């Protein structure tokens, strides 16, 4: 189109009267409603995604968890069905060989130890772990406390770190840090309580319900050498396959089993789980987006409807303009602009309403509300804004285009012939 | 009234004829039946003529006017407007020809209701790419020449029938067309306003414009210098009224 064409279309658009004020208002409201629906749905999906990611990270990032098991393949003359049970000192061995891992830790777990403070005794889970566990498994201490450290592990100190829910069960209103409590009648000094965290994955129960003591202390008290779990953290998500391979090969070499024996090497790879979760979230957001787009589409049909009515009403005017020398594009352009402007006004209105709703929802207290804690809060992102604007624009153009196409078919001779 | 009719560049009139129609036919195909509205029309109109086309209802007058004004294209035959062959042009090209070469005056005025008299007169110039200042100046000039200098800002609904038709005449002249086509210009007017508009058209002719008017109005036909009578899609009579010709 030439500059002149745009100028003519613009002038005609400005001169066009909007006689259908009531209908235009309703149509704009429909578009606004559709916009609110699509933004709220997508923002809800975004909030859920953020919450799920946060929950997934609750257990730690780029980690894998391994359980001891029996072999299922014959290997170098050894039969199948042999249990593979690594020991505490295998952790150092694995650390030396797994270059793709930034950390390897061992765990030993007692599932029903009695934990006592004052008159309160709770039976629960106590885990002995290497001191790096705090960072790798995201056990961050509340202010005033700490996680177990390297000296605790070296000196087999009787120190204990409590999950926040467990701490409340045992200590109630009392501040636990610095207090002495008993684990199976052996005294321990409480050094820290875990910060509350979202945790969606677990392999032995929520971290908030367990206690952690140095692995060396655990071994001494319970007389155990065999590990209950091995956890390792890949340097990056991309390093995970290599880390797993190094883990399998190192362990297989030491305990003499087939490194491809999946019954032994099978583990929980959270990187893979994250990929699946990511795909599910993309699917969910796409689904929510389609529902929103359909709602918006109905608003678009409203715009198209009103534009058809305007074209019908203005058939004679269109005929006159054509008789006076207006090209088809000049006559149809204003209708497209009008359809777009209705959509634009409705879209901006809807965006403002949606933003207010999102802000109001953000003010609602989440703490203690389990449903909200899981669902998260609707979150507006620029991707959502761009997607919504794109869908709105497309619908606006279509809603103006089809009626405009009808306007273009007006035959001036036909319209001017009759009264 | 004084009409400044400038000679346009690039207007190659065929043998001095603004309109040159040869063996024009127009058939309306309604699916089941075909209606022959025009069956071989030959009309030539010279510059400066005032032609009245008369005939009974259904004789094909309006069809002929639509073809003359490039609102429609003939089924067969050759039509040259100011030397330019009209057949086979696309719709946008026809729109350009209507804009530059033809001025329309309709029975029911066909002014755009939401625009003022001035903006209505500006409309063809907007399509013709005339700059804003020049548009305003010319529109004022045209309205002044039809005696509506004090009505420029009025909307059509605020004008009488005669005034509306004079706005329409001013609009028809906005682009200084080669020919002004009028379809029953007095058909919707009372006798007084009708005479008023007839006078305006006649003065237009005296100013040098070429006019073709379709009319039932005998008084208007008598003011023309040439009367073409159409019956059943054919020209049955073509008389030049020498007494009126000056």
Summarize the structure in short.
The complex is a heterodimer of chains A (419) and B (246). By secondary structure, chain A is of the alpha+beta class.
Key features of this structure:
heterodimer; A: 419 residues; alpha+beta; 2 domains; six-stranded mixed β-barrel; 15 helices; 16% strand; B: 246 residues; alpha/beta; Rossmann fold; four-stranded antiparallel sheet; 10 strands; 32% helix; globular
Sequence-ordered SSE layout with sheet pairings:
The complex is a heterodimer of chains A (419) and B (246).
Chain A: H1 3-15, H2 21-57, E1 63-66, E2 69-70, E3 83-84, H3 90-97, E4 101-117, E5 120-129, H4 133-136, H5 150-154, E6 159-162, H6 164-171, E7 180-183, E8 186-193, E9 210-214, H7 215-222, E10 229-234, H8 240-255, H9 262-265, E11 267-269, H10 270-313, H11 315-323, H12 328-363, H13 370-375, H14 382-408, H15 412-417
Parallel strand pairs in A: 5-9, 6-8
Antiparallel strand pairs in A: 1-10, 1-11, 2-3, 4-5, 4-7, 4-10, 6-9, 7-8
Helix pairs in contact in A: 1-12, 2-10, 2-12, 2-14, 10-12, 10-14, 12-14
Chain B: E1 17-29, E2 34-46, E3 50-54, H1 61-68, E4 76-81, E5 84-85, H2 91-101, E6 102-105, H3 117-127, H4 132-145, H5 161-172, E7 179-183, H6 191-206, E8 211-214, H7 218-223, E9 226-231, E10 234-240
Parallel strand pairs in B: 3-8, 3-9, 6-7, 7-8
Antiparallel strand pairs in B: 1-2, 1-4, 4-5, 9-10
Helix pairs in contact in B: 3-4, 3-5, 4-5, 5-6
Structural description of this entry:
The complex is a heterodimer of chains A (419) and B (246). Chain A has helices at residues 3-15, 21-57, 90-97, 133-136, 150-154, 164-171, 215-222, 240-255, 262-265, 270-313, 315-323, 328-363, 370-375, 382-408, 412-417, and strands spanning 63-66, 69-70, 83-84, 101-117, 120-129, 159-162, 180-183, 186-193, 210-214, 229-234, 267-269. Chain A has two domains: 3-57 and 274-417, no CATH class; 83-256, no CATH class. Chain A is elongated and about 105 Å long. By secondary structure, chain A is an alpha+beta fold. Chain B has a single domain, classed as P-loop containing nucleotide triphosphate hydrolases (Rossmann fold, 3-Layer(aba) Sandwich). Chain B has a six-stranded mixed β-sheet, sandwiched between helices. The longest helix of chain B is centred in the last third of the chain and has 16 residues, at 191-206. Residues 1-13 of chain B have low confidence and may be disordered. Classes of the chains: A alpha+beta (419), B alpha/beta (246). The A-B interface holds A 4, 8, 11-12, 15-17, 316-317, 320-330, 411-413, 416-417, 419 and B 62, 66, 69, 71-72, 91-92, 95-96, 98-100, 104, 106, 108, 110, 112-115, 119, 123-124, 126-129, 171, 175, 183.
């Amino acid at each position: 189109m030439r500059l002149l064409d745009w100028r003519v279309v613009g002038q005609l658009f400005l001169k066009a009267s909007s006689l259908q004020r009531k209908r235009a208002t309703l149509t704009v409201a429909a578009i606004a409603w559709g916009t609110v629906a699509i933004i709220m749905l997508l923002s809800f999906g975004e909030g859920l995604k953020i919450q799920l990611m946060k929950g997934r990270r609750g257990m730690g990032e780029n980690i894998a968890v391994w359980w001891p098991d029996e072999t299922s393949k014959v290997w170098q003359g050894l039969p199948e069905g042999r249990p593979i049970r690594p020991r505490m000192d295998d952790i150092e061995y694995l650390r030396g060989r797994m270059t793709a891992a930034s950390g390897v830790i061992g765990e030993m777990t007692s599932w029903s130890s009695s934990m006592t403070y004052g008159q309160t005794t709770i039976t629960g889970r106590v885990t002995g772990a290497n001191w790096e566990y705090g960072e790798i498994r995201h056990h961050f201490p509340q202010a005033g406390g700490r996680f177990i450290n390297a000296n605790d592990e070296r000196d087999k100190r009787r120190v204990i770190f409590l999950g926040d829910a467990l701490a409340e069960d045992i200590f109630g209103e009392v501040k636990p840090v610095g207090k002495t409590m008993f684990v199976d009648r052996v005294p321990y000094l409480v050094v820290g309580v875990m910060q509350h965290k979202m945790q969606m994955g677990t392999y032995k129960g929520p971290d908030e319900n367990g206690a952690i003591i140095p692995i060396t202390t655990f071994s001494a008290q319970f007389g155990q050498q065999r590990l209950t779990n091995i956890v390792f953290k890949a340097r990056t998500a991309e390093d995970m396959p290599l880390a797993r391979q190094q883990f399998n090969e190192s362990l297989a070499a030491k305990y003499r089993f087939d490194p491809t024996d999946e019954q032994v090497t099978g583990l929980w790879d959270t990187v893979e789980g994250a990929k699946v979760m990511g795909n599910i979230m993309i699917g969910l957001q796409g689904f929510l987006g389609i529902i929103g787009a359909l709602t918006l589409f109905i608003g678009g049909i409203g715009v198209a409807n009103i534009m058809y009515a305007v074209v019908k009403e203005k058939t004679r005017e269109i005929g006159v303009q054509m008789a006076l020398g207006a090209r088809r594009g000049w006559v149809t352009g204003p209708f497209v602009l009008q359809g777009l402007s209705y959509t634009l006004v409705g879209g901006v209105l809807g965006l403002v309403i949606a933003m207010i709703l999102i802000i109001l929802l953000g003010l609602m207290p989440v703490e203690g509300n389990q449903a909200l804690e899981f669902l998260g809060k609707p979150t507006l992102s620029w991707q959502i804004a761009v997607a919504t604007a794109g869908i709105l624009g497309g619908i606006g153009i279509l809603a103006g285009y089809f009626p405009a196409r009808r306007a273009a078919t007006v035959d001036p001779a036909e319209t001017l012939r009759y009264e | 009234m004084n009409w400044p009719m400038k000679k346009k560049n690039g207007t190659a009139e065929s043998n001095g004829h603004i309109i040159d129609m040869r063996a024009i036919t127009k058939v309306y195909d309604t699916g089941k039946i075909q209606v022959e509205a025009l069956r071989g029309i030959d009309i030539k109109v010279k510059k400066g003529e005032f032609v009245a086309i008369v005939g009974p209802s259904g004789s094909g007058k309006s069809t002929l006017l639509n073809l003359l004004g490039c609102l429609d294209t003939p089924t067969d035959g050759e039509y040259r407007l100011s030397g330019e062959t009209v057949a086979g042009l696309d719709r946008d090209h026809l729109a350009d020809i209507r804009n530059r070469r033809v001025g329309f005056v309709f029975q029911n005025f066909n002014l755009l209701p939401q625009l003022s008299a001035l903006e209505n007169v500006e409309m063809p110039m907007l399509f013709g790419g005339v700059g804003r200042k020049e548009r305003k100046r010319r529109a004022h000039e045209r309205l002044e020449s039809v005696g509506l200098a004090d009505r420029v800002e009025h909307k059509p609904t605020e004008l009488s029938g005669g005034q509306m038709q004079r706005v329409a005449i001013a609009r028809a002249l906005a682009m200084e067309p080669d020919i002004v086509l009028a379809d029953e210009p007095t058909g919707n007017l009372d006798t007084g306003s009708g005479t008023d508009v007839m006078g305006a058209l006649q003065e237009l002719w005296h100013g040098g414009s070429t006019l073709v008017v379709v009319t039932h109005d005998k008084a208007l036909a008598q003011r023309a210098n040439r009367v073409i009578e159409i019956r059943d899609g054919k020209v049955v009579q073509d008389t030049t009224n020498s007494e009126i010709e000056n």
